[in-house]
Amino acid sequence: MPVAPSTATVPRVVLYSRVGCCLCDEAERALTEAGRRFEVFFEVVEVDVVGGEALQRFGDHVPVLEIDGEVVLRHRIDAGSLNRCLRGRLAGLGTGLGWRARLAARLLPWSSRRGRG
């Protein structure tokens, strides 16, 4: 299961789910595909396994997608809604493949001019 690197510029994406939940399985498949497309790492938290606050907070109301601590999608998380959500969240960094490279170029503008006469 991929985990987000500890960098302030990389969004922290968490999918809260439960064991045996078909909607959760569908959401995880959609998130895996979107993660590849948008180069986003995510974490899956099984609320009935970890218990505690996650179980109290979400209980049977899963799947829940949280980005940077904010609940952005819940229950039916399909590829379309997930793509729209991630595209909107990553708009400031650029969307689609290579957003990390665009972010690096924005943070280090001289790097894009390197090697040019």
Topology:
Layout: E1 13-17, H1 22-38, E2 42-46, H2 47-50, H3 52-58, E3 64-67, E4 70-74, H4 79-89, H5 99-107, H6 109-113
Helix pairs in contact: 1-4
Summary of the model, kept short:
The protein has 117 residues and is an alpha+beta fold.
Structure description:
- By secondary structure, this protein is an alpha+beta fold.
- The chain has a single domain (13-113), classed as Glutaredoxin (3-Layer(aba) Sandwich), CATH 3.40.30.10.
- The protein is 45% helix and 16% strand.
- The chain is built from six helices and four strands, in the order βαβααββααα.
- The protein has helices at 22-38, 47-50, 52-58, 79-89, 99-107, 109-113; strands at residues 13-17, 42-46, 64-67, 70-74.
- Strands 2-1-3-4 form a four-stranded mixed β-sheet.
- Helix 1 (22-38) links the parallel strand 1 (13-17) and strand 2.
- The N and C termini lie far apart (44 Å).
| Spatial gap, N to C terminus | 44 Å
Stretches where pLDDT is under 50 for at least 5 consecutive residues are: 3-8, 102-117
- The rough form would be described as globular
- Tell me the domain tally: 1
Q: Whole-number radius of gyration? A: 16 Å
Q: Which series of helices and strands comes N to C?
A: EHEHHEEHHH
Please outline the major beta sheet: 4 strands, mixed
What CATH architecture label applies?
Answer: 3-Layer(aba) Sandwich
Helix content bin: 40-55%
Side-by-side strand order of the widest sheet: 2-1-3-4
Count the helices. How many? 6
